């Protein structure tokens, strides 16, 4: 009989100290499938804040979609929205604190490149005041578009909404596989923008060069004097991946995208089973 030795890999190192900051994605991570915060998760967030840990929600959502966590602001209430394009004060009517906009010229270059590489792509423009979309773009369920028009008009210089910065360009395709669409976008538009995704459909979220959840969170932590090693982050989709790998300890949800699970050493339970809360409860047992 031939024996094969299978190496025993060590468990990934867990934090030895209580974190100074917890950064959590919302959809598919902190929120359950019905878009609510469970009682256990709410209690864990409150306990973390009471223990002196900053809790920051870091999401692809626009500021106007943050009501889901409005009852769970136990600290300063600052959130990072739009995949890092906006920092908002949730305690002050989601007032914009900082904006990292996508330049109009970059957005137009992305539109033209994707139209060539993936015919049939339709677009929407997420501005600080709301969303604008092309006629063929899937209608939004959360709120209606402010304007429906061809994307070149929506991005035209001197248009009605020129004073409202563009946070994200959204690109949708009816037939391409979501990951294939993302790969194509990164290959063809990477010089002008950052492309990622968080939807199960072929829907891309396109931000300014260098803008991601990770880079905006890093800026906030640097200003607060918090080292990445003292940050714990949670996420589930490709738009969380940079944040999970930047943080000293990044946890992928058990329901996460396969690429996120493969790239992170730490995993926790699903969003339905309060995976974030389970981990926070353990973190609170650590010394400061």
TrEMBL record:
The keyword Hydrolase is annotated on this UniProt entry: yes
Keywords: Hydrolase
GO molecular function: magnesium ion binding; phosphatase activity
InterPro entries assigned to the protein according to its UniProt record, in alphabetical order: Cof, HAD-like_sf, HAD-SF_hydro_IIB, HAD_sf
Gene Ontology cellular component list: cytosol
Gene3D superfamilies assigned: 3.30.1240.10, HAD superfamily/HAD-like
UniProt xrefs under SUPFAM superfamilies: HAD-like (SSF56784)
PANTHER family, sorted: HAD SUPERFAMILY HYDROLASE-LIKE, TYPE 3, PHOSPHOSERINE PHOSPHATASE
Protein name: Cof-type HAD-IIB family hydrolase
UniProt organism field: Streptomyces triticirhizae
Taxonomic placement: Bacteria, Bacillati, Actinomycetota, Actinomycetes, Kitasatosporales
